[in-house]
Amino acid sequence: MNNARTFGPIGSLYLALFFAYLFGPLAVMVITAFNSSSFPRISPWDCLTADWFSKLLADEKLLAGLGNSFVIGIGVVIVAIPIGLAAAIVLSQVGNQLRSVIYAIFIAPILMPGVVIGLSTLIFWDRLGTAIGAGYNSLFYDGMFLTVVGQVTFISAYSMLVFLSRLQRFDPTLTEAALDMGATPTQAFTKILLPFMMPAIASSGVLAFLASMENYNTTVFTIVADSTFTTVLAQKVRYGLDPSISAVSVIIVGITLAAAIVFESYKRREDRKARASALSLPMDRPFIRVVSHPGTVAAIVLALIAGAIAWAGTYDSSVCERRILDEKRALQEQLMEEQRQSAPADETAPSTGEPTVTPGKPGNSIFSPGNLTGGETPAKPASPGGVFAPGNLKGGEAPAKPASPFGGVFAPDNLKGGN
Prior knowledge:
The chain crosses the membrane at residues 12-34, 70-91, 103-125, 145-167, 188-211, 245-266, 287-313. Keywords: Cell membrane, Membrane, Transmembrane, Transmembrane helix, Transport. The protein is an all-alpha fold. It has a domain at 60-242: MetI-like fold (Orthogonal Bundle). Helix content is 66%, strand content 0%. Helix 3 runs antiparallel to helix 4, helix 6 crosses helix 8 (185-214) and helix 7 packs antiparallel against helix 8. It starts with a helix and ends in a 73-residue tail after the last helix.
């Protein structure tokens, strides 16, 4: 009894921490989608706004990537579900030794890194296209096709595991009885096995679509020049995020919750019908049947979504945002005024040994000629002569022209007879 009492609070605390860890990031992202701050944050809170949803609709690149992701996800579901179902049926009908070999082959892509799958897919189809001489505008180099093929290699293994878990509860004697009664293998499959596998097909389809939407490691190599939702988000992370990404998350979470609520209501209604028919009990009262009907639940969910969209379109947060902006400007001006008031107190310290500049006198600066000698310009020293003075080699006197002792051929008046 004491152990039960002790385990109760501990178990509750563990569950609370588990759900906080699991759903905490989603809650934070949903809240940031309604904060007017330009950066996704909860604190400090600025204003309640729905502008990020309108800005999301104006982001053409993100919407284009989201559209490509939807197309790729649908293509992956169409291809991966038949492959996974075929693999599960084969594994349920072969011997133990062959089953282990086939199972290892199908499960290997899950254990392989997504980078390796993406690069190998890109290289394989490039070599194949080069071998047959296909151009770069052909299917072998199309990013959408390569991404579908690359994702199917491991997502089909997920589908196979879902189908295997469902086939373990299937009674194979039902198929054998249908064949003994003259049904063809195709009729036995479509009339008996396929209806039994429909819940698993729906579950694996949702799983395959979500796995395709969130995949990045394989997609970043196979998408080539195109883009998907995850690759656009990765580019936005490099250049800075804004709450429009949170708006995308709110939309995805809302769609997921709406689908889960409608599916759960349908499942519970079917369980109540099966229990009532098995125990020969009447169904619930008419009011309960109408309220719990999946169509009624879907209508309520759609009405809530429409109300949220109408509120987002009519709510105006410009007044609050203007007030926040005015408060920030006032705070900035106050800080600047405090800096101006504290600036003169820092600059009144006396200067020692530094040259003073007298205004009105040109050239009076630290580069003035007499700056280092107390502000007076030194007098120009008298030239004592120096080695370059004229007459330095003759004692300072210029040499006199020597008198010619005799005429000669070079005498000035030689040609005139010496006169």
